[in-house]
Amino acid sequence: MGCKPSATKLVYHWPLALDVMKDGFRAGREKKLLAFFTKHFDPLGPTAEVKVLGGIGYVTQDPRNIEALLSTQFQGK
Fold first, then answer.
1. Is the pLDDT of residue 76 over 90?
2. Disulfide engineering: 8 pairs with which of 4, 17, 39, 44, CB 3.0-4.6 Å?
3. What is the CA radius of gyration of the chain?
4. Residue 63 phi, psi dihedral angles, 5° rounding
5. With a threshold of 0.70, does the pTM exceed it?
6. Across-strand partners of 38?
């Protein structure tokens, strides 16, 4: 679909991004998830690489990337 690698990465300070996870769980308990996502992900731009607990994932709010994901036919295992 012509996707390029993400230029931005989630910034964390504790190993395995445990500080971000801790903030996320706290935000969930306090019903402040929008503020959590705004703080951690808005500064990264429309698409970013996220490494949490040793895994790699991507977050996007770019409409073109979302359209490409939703229009892809993927097969589950």
1. no
2. 44
3. 14
4. -55, -35
5. yes
6. none
Where are the domains positioned within the chain? 15-71
Residue for token pair 């994901």: 69
**Type of residue found at 58:** Y
Residue 14, classed as helix, strand or coil, is: coil
Dihedral sign, Cα of residue 16, residue 17, residue 22, residue 24: negative
What tokens does 74 get?
A: 């993927």
pLDDT tens readout for residues 9-45: 998 999 999 999 999 999 999 999 999 999 998 898 8
Q: What's at 71, amino acid-wise?
A: S
Q: Report how far residue 20's alpha carbon sits from residue 39's, in angstroms, rounded to the nearest whole number.
A: 10
Q: Which structure tokens are listed for 10? A: 């989630």
